[in-house]
Amino acid sequence: MSFLGIDVGTSSVKAVLMDETSRIVASASSPLAVSRPQAGWSEQDPADWIAATGSILDRLCAEIPAAFNHLRGVGLSGQMHGATLLDAGDRPIRPAILWNDGRAEAECAELTQCEPRFLSLGGSLVMPGFTAPKLAWIRRHEPAAFDRVRKVLLPKDYVRLWLTGEHASDMSDAAGTLWLDVARRDWSEPLLAATGLTREHMPRLFEGTEPTGALRGELARRWGIDGAPVVAGGGGDNAASAIGIGAVRPGDAFVSLGTSGVLFVSNARFSPNTARAVHAFCHALPGTWHQMGVILSATASLEWLAGVTGAGAAELVAEAERAGPPTPEAPLFLPYLAGERTPHNDAGARAAFVGLAQVSDRGTLAAAVLEGVAFAFADSLDALRAAGTTLSRATAVGGGSRSLHWLGLISSALGIAIDVPEDGELGAAFGAARLGRIAAEGADPLAICAPPRIRATIEPDPGLAEMLAPRLGRWRQLYPRLNEVRPT
Q: Order of strands across the sheet with 417-421?
């Protein structure tokens, strides 16, 4: 038997095929483009998600047809918060507005004022990246499009619709809309009403481990599948990543270095801290929740520097490592290229280098970027601790976690141990495959979601921590001071 995990990311769609021993037998990915029609906007064409998914599965089926023949379960993961608006014929009305789109800042303030229960029921501050304020923006600025909306789906759930014909979502991804009563794990009618919507506009809700439907016969025949594999509820990308690395028990944590950065902790109960912009969401397992501190530009900061300097990201990391430990006068970097969530909730925040000198070279800038992202994680940890969460170690995931140097900076800035798994494939797509297996077999989630073998543990370096501490103090003064001279 085999199980498939599909992750609909921002920069690519990725799929992994897992056997009954949880061994990954194949994987593939296909890139996605992001459109930015205006400054601060971020959109994708939902048709691109379908095209990429179909292309990947065609390729995997051609490579290992026998494994596809015995496919029994499919799990889905995806970028959270994306507003995919469908008409009565399930056709997209406009491009999907993505998680890192900042256009709805005014609507956030209005929703917070008119319906305070967004904070108490939704578990997070109302931020432009979430789905609810995006619909408020559409309602105001594109009323003709809003009037045509019959269903609002998240990105992975639009792919689910193609796979199964079902309008469905899971609790973890739905929590990122701000329409969910997170403690009760159900849509909130008052929160929906605040944006002019009702339950009829929403997909049916399932736990991440539950079957939501079966693969359509047309697609099963296309890929030579014997039978109709079930498609699990799946999870938002971070909850699915937690399933992939086994962060499913209270206190289990991971640090994700992807396009965005996430410090994720699993919880036994709903534990919000909206004052510090912590996200409190449902986990992908029943009766489990989680908290997140979110950085909008983690590896995105490094990729930005690579783009403007003409160097590859790996080359920049190597140059930063050769630059050595930071000196007191080394430049500081705020990684707010697309605004920031935790702890500022400021879509208008912007990045900055401070302290450049004539001797500052490309390696100096790269070192400042890596350190700035590490400091942003330190802000997230402080916010989680203010919510009563104790954290002493975390597992590293995401593309940036290939750099042990960067993980060392993060470990020393946060004062926690970071475990590095042996297998680099552990992530959202693998977690989705695990959820597909649980749904297909009715298996015990805790038995399936075992933690990975660890190849290295990075402990905080006391000497480096001592050097970073005063720099972190200075770094934290930059945001409020630069805010004083920011254009209004």
A: 279-282, 289-295, 261-267, 253-257, 393-397, 417-421, 454-458
